[in-house]
Amino acid sequence: MPSQQLEPFLISLDPRAGSGGERQVVHSGHEFVYCLKEKVEYVIDGKTYLLETGDILIFEATLPHLWRNPFDTQAKFMLVLQIANESRVSVQQHFLDHPTVRHIGKHRAG
Fold it and tell me: Would the N or C end of the chain have less CB density within 10 A of its end CB?
């Protein structure tokens, strides 16, 4: 994975919160999601995926997507953005109206 950047985040998502309403984002690279606590929904290219504790989701970030917690309990998940260059655009798109987000490190592959 030459010239790749990985951006990992730990996200605590309050009940009824999400990545920005129904605003979907599109960016280069891939996303890796690992649900750590409770449930979170991802909508990718019009299809809804329910992730429960222990579930993993990997997808092409060029597909329109968003995440949300339509449930009554706080959810927690790890999100790793794989970015093909030094651009912070994909990070900024995801956390424009962000919940509690903690950047948990930065690793460059290649």
Answer: C
